[in-house]
Write a structure and sequence with these properties.
elongated; 24 helices; alpha+beta; 17% strand; 51% helix
Length: 820
C-alpha cells in the first residue's frame, strides 16, 4: 500500500515540516504587522527616524556612486591618464605641462598609445549675426584617438584641419543651428579664426568639463617655452600597461630632458595619474566627509530605533516570559522581535528612498561647479540595492539588543518585576541611558564639525578682499581679434565704450580688466626686476599678471599707495609701464621705493616696464587665498590681452537694473562682442561654493542629528516618568516638592548629556584632523565651536526632558496610588 511506503511517508514528513515552517513564518510576519498597527505612535516614530537616516545616506550615495564609483563614460576609461608636472625639490605639482614637454612625452613614451596636448576656456564664439559664450578647447588630432571618439554626425578632423575645422557638442548644435545635421558645414569664428563644423559629438561627451566647441590645433603647440605651463595633456595607455610601468618610463624621460635642458627642466618630473582620479580629486574629500556625516546620522537613527525597540521589549516582558514558560524556544521568542524590526526597516527604507529623490535634486542644485558629471547623477539599481542593504543593516543594528534581551529573559524573574511600580530591572535603565549617551556623543561630533565649517564660512565672508564688492556690475566681454591691428582696434573701441558707459545715469565709474579677482580670465608667471633685491636665477619670483584700463583701481576701490595710475600717455608706442601690488614690492624691493624701477615678465613681450605705481593687495581667486604679488599692465600696451576682459561698473543703483542699457551701448559699438552679466557679489559668492556646500549640508545633517538626539532624550525621560508614576505619586504623597521632582528629572537628563558631550569631545579630538584641510582661519580644535556644540547639546537635552518632567510634577498622588 502507498501509506506503507517508507519513501512516501518520509516525503510527507519533510513536506509537512517545510510547509509548517513557512506557515509559522507567515503567521509571525502577520503578528509583527498587527503589533505595528496596534502601536501607531511607535511605528510612525521608528519608521520616520529610519527614513531620515536611510534617505540621507541614499541621497549622498547617489552622488558618490555617480561621481566617484561609476566608470567614466569613455571607451576604455580605465586606461586614460592625465599628465602632471611635479617638482622634486619643492614637492609642488601642477596639472599642466609646457608645450615642448608635452610633445616630448608624446614622441618618446612607448607605454602610451596616444597623447594629446590641449588648452582652452570660456570664450566668445561668433556666429553669423551674433556671438555667444561657450567653452572652447583647442585639441590636436590625437585627441580623438585618446578618447576613441565617434561623432553622431559628420566626421573627425585631421592634423591638416588645424585652425580651420571644429567639432561641436550635440547641445550646441541644437541650440544654435536647430539640429546636428544642420550644424554640419556651418562656419563659426573663434579668436577671429573661421572654423567649419565638420562633426558633432554626442551629448555624453564633454571633456574637458562643459566643452561645447573643440577647435583643431596643430600637433606642435604654439608655445615653445619650457617654462610656460599653458597646456594640459591626456593620454591612453597601451593594452596591458599599468600606470606603474608608464610612470617608470615617464621618470626616465624626465631625467633625459633634465640632462638636455638643465635650466628649464631642473627637478621637473612628469607624473601619470588616472583620469578619473584627476577629475574627482577636488570633490572627493567633500563627498567623503558628507558620506561619513550621513553615516553618523544613520547610526543615531539606529540607536533611536534600538531604544524604541527596547521600550517595546520591556513592555512585552511579561508576554515573552509567559511564552518561554509554556515551552517556546529561544528562536521562537526572538523571531517576532526580528521580524518587527525588519518590517520597520523596510517601511523606513521605502520612505527614505522617496525622500532621496528630492534630496538628490537639492544636492545637485547646491553642488559647486567642480562636481563632475552632475547631469548623470540619478537613482539607479545600484543605489536602490544600497538602500535595501541599509534597511537590512538597520534591522540588525536596531534589533540585536532588544532581541538578545528578549531571548535572555528569565520567566520567573520577569514575572517578579513590575515596571509600573518603578521595579523594572536596573540593567534596562542603564542600557537606555547608555544609548542616549551614544546618541549625544555622535550628535556632538556632527555639531562640532558643523561649527568648524560654519566658522570657516563666516571667517571667509568677513575677510577683506582688498577691494569693495558692493554696487559693482561685471560684464564678461569677448571681442573677436586675431591680428595686432584687430587687437588695437578693439582697445580703441573699449576706451570709447568706457567713456560712454560712464555717462549712463546711475553709473559712477567704469573700467576694464583682464584678471579680475574671482574672474574667468587671468595669467601668472615669473618676472625679473632691475634695481630690486637679488634672487636665485633658478627660482625667479612669480606673480599674478593683469591687464587693466585707467581708473580700474579707483573703480574697484583698490587703494593707490604710491605713484600714479595708468593714463592716456601710456600708449602702445610709448615707454612700457606697470603698477605693482604691495606684496610684489615687498617681495622684490624690500624697503626700496619701487617707483621708477624696472620689471619684466613673459606675458606677451620681453620689454622692460617702468614701475609707476604701487597699489594694495587683493585676494585673487577667493577669500580662502592669501593676498599675493600682482603685476598690472595697461591695456593699450598689451592689446592681445585686452579683447577678453571684464568691464566693471561702479553704480549708484542696483547693478543688474542697468544691464539692458549697458548691453545696448556695448552692442552698438560692436555687435559681435559676446556678453555675460553678473555682479561682483555674485562672483565672490560663487568662489565660496565648495565651502558653502560643505557647511550647509553638514549643518543640516547636524540639525537632523540634533532632532534625533532630542527625540532620544525625550523618549528616555518620558518612559522613565511613565514607569515611575507610582513612585512619583508616593513621593508627592509624603510631601516631595514639585521643584525637587522636576530638578531630579532635568538633572538626570543633564548628566546623560554631559557624559555624551565628554565622549563626543574625545571623538572630535580624534577626528579633527580629517577636516583640517577644509578649514581656513580656524583651528581644528576651536574652543568657540566646542563651547557652542556643548551648550547646544546640553540645552537640547534639557528642553527634551522638560516636558516629561513637567508632566511628572502634575501627577495626582491619590490617583497614582489608587491605580496600583
Amino acid at each position: 500500500m502507498e501509506s506503507g511506503n517508507k519513501g512516501v511517508v518520509s516525503e510527507r514528513v519533510r513536506s509537512y515540516g517545510w510547509e509548517n515552517a513557512v506557515r509559522s513564518l507567515v503567521a509571525d510576519v502577520r503578528f509583527a504587522g498587527r503589533q505595528l498597527l496596534k502601536h501607531p505612535v511607535f511605528t510612525a516614530a521608528a519608521a520616520l527616524t529610519l527614513a531620515l537616516g536611510i534617505g540621507a545616506n541614499t541621497a549622498i550615495f547617489t552622488v558618490v556612486e555617480s561621481v566617484l564609483l561609476a566608470p567614466l563614460p569613455y571607451q576604455g576609461a580605465d586606461r586614460l591618464a592625465v599628465l602632471n608636472t611635479y617638482w622634486t625639490d619643492s614637492g609642488h605639482t601642477t596639472s599642466r605641462v609646457t608645450g615642448p614637454d608635452g610633445v616630448d612625452v608624446r614622441t618618446q613614451a612607448r607605454t602610451m598609445e596616444a597623447v594629446s596636448v590641449y588648452s582652452g576656456g570660456s570664450l566668445g564664439v561668433e556666429l553669423h549675426d551674433h556671438s555667444v559664450y561657450a567653452v572652447v578647447t583647442w585639441v590636436d588630432a590625437n585627441f580623438a584617438s585618446v578618447f576613441r571618439l565617434q561623432p553622431i554626425a559628420g566626421h573627425l578632423f585631421t592634423e591638416a584641419d588645424a585652425h580651420s575645422a571644429a567639432l561641436v557638442s550635440e547641445q550646441f548644435a541644437r541650440d544654435n543651428f536647430g539640429g546636428t545635421q544642420a550644424a554640419l558645414g556651418q562656419v563659426l569664428h573663434v579668436e577671429n579664426e573661421a572654423l567649419e563644423i565638420v562633426g558633432v559629438l554626442p551629448a555624453a561627451f564633454d571633456f574637458p568639463a562643459r566643452t561645447q566647441v573643440w577647435e583643431a590645433s596643430p600637433l606642435q603647440p604654439a608655445s615653445k617655452s619650457r617654462t610656460a605651463f599653458n597646456y594640459k595633456a591626456v593620454g591612453r595607455l597601451r593594452p596591458g600597461v599599468s600606470f606603474q610601468t608608464a610612470q617608470t618610463e615617464l621618470t626616465g624621460i624626465s631625467r633625459r630632458l633634465e640632462a638636455a635642458y638643465p635650466a628649464e627642466n631642473r627637478n621637473k618630473q612628469f607624473v601619470a595619474a588616472p583620469l578619473k582620479d584627476a577629475l574627482t580629486s577636488d570633490v572627493r574629500p567633500t563627498l567623503m566627509l558628507l558620506w561619513a556625516t550621513v553615516g553618523i546620522i544613520l547610526l543615531i537613527a539606529c540607536v533611536n530605533v534600538t531604544h524604541l525597540q527596547l521600550v517595546r521589549s520591556i513592555e512585552r516582558q511579561r508576554e515573552i516570559a509567559i511564552r518561554k514558560a509554556i515551552g517556546s524556544s529561544g528562536w521562537r521568542v526572538l523571531r517576532p522581535v526580528m521580524l518587527e524590526s525588519l518590517l520597520l526597516s523596510l517601511i523606513g527604507g521605502a520612505a527614505g528612498v522617496l525622500l532621496a529623490f528630492p534630496a538628490v535634486h537639492v544636492l545637485i542644485a547646491m553642488a559647486p561647479k567642480e562636481l563632475p558629471h552632475a547631469n548623470a547623477i540619478h537613482l539607479n539599481g545600484r543605489v536602490l540595492a544600497f538602500a535595501l542593504g541599509l534597511a537590512v543593516v538597520c534591522t540588525l543594528l536596531s534589533s540585536m539588543l532588544p532581541a538578545l534581551r528578549a531571548s535572555g529573559v528569565d520567566a520567573a524573574e520577569a514575572l517578579k518585576h513590575d515596571a509600573s511600580r518603578g521595579m523594572s530591572r536596573q540593567g534596562a535603565a542603564r542600557l537606555r541611558d547608555g544609548l542616549v549617551i551614544a546618541e549625544v556623543a555622535a550628535t556632538f561630533v556632527l555639531a562640532m564639525g558643523a561649527g568648524l565649517l560654519l566658522h570657516t564660512m563666516m571667517t571667509l565672508m568677513a575677510r577683506d578682499m582688498g577691494y569693495r564688492t558692493p554696487q559693482l556690475l561685471v560684464v564678461d566681454a569677448d571681442a573677436p581679434a586675431h591680428s595686432e591691428a584687430d587687437a588695437l582696434r578693439v582697445v580703441g573701441q573699449l576706451n570709447t565704450l568706457f567713456a560712454e558707459l560712464a555717462s549712463v545715469p546711475g553709473v559712477e565709474r567704469v573700467a576694464g580688466i583682464m584678471g579680475l579677482p574671482t574672474g574667468n580670465y587671468g595669467s601668472n608667471g615669473s618676472y625679473h626686476t632691475r634695481g630690486g633685491l637679488p634672487f636665485d636665477p633658478g627660482h625667479a619670483p612669480s606673480s599674478v599678471f593683469s591687464v587693466a584700463s585707467p581708473g580700474y583701481f579707483q573703480t574697484m576701490g583698490i587703494p593707490l599707495e604710491g605713484g600714479r595710475d595708468f593714463d592716456a600717455q601710456d600708449t602702445f608706442d610709448g615707454p612700457f609701464v606697470a603698477v605693482i601690488s604691495r606684496s610684489l614690492a615687498r617681495q622684490s624691493f624690500g624697503d626700496i621705493d619701487p617707483v621708477g624701477k624696472q620689471i619684466q615678465c613673459g606675458l606677451d613681450s620681453d620689454k622692460w616696464m617702468t614701475i609707476v605705481g604701487v597699489v594694495g593687495d587683493v585676494r585673487q581667486d577667493s577669500p580662502a587665498d592669501k593676498a599675493g604679488p600682482a603685476l598690472y599692465m595697461p591695456m593699450t600696451q598689451h592689446p592681445f590681452y585686452a579683447n577678453q576682459i571684464h568691464i566693471v561698473l561702479r553704480t549708484e543703483v542696483k547693478p543688474l537694473t542697468l544691464m539692458g542699457v549697458v548691453q545696448a551701448k556695448i552692442l552698438e559699438v560692436n555687435p559681435l562682442i559676446a556678453l555675460r552679466f553678473t555682479t561682483m557679489d555674485a562672483m565672490l559668492n560663487k568662489s565660496l561654493a565648495a565651502e558653502r556646500f560643505r557647511a550647509v549640508l553638514v549643518s543640516s545633517f547636524a540639525g537632523v542629528g540634533l532632532l534625533l538626539a532630542m527625540l532620544g532624550v525625550y523618549g528616555t525621560m518620558a518612559y522613565s516618568v511613565a514607569q515611575r508614576t507610582f513612585e512619583i505619586g508616593l513621593r508627592m504623597a509624603f510631601g516631595a516638592e514639585k521643584r525637587a521632582i522636576l530638578s531630579g528629572i532635568l538633572g538626570h537628563a543633564a548628566k546623560l548629556a554631559c557624559c555624551g558631550i565628554a565622549a563626543g569631545l574625545l571623538l572630535s579630538l580624534l577626528l579633527a584632523r580629517l577636516v583640517e584641510n577644509m578649514l581656513v582661519g580656524v583651528r581644528p580644535i576651536d574652543p568657540g565651536s566646542l563651547a557652542v556644540a556643548a551648550l547646544l547639546l546640553l540645552l537640547t537635552a534639557l528642553a527634551a526632558a522638560f516636558v516629561p518632567g513637567w508632566k511628572a510634577t502634575h501627577v495626582d498622588p491619590m490617583g497614582a496610588l489608587r491605580a496600583e
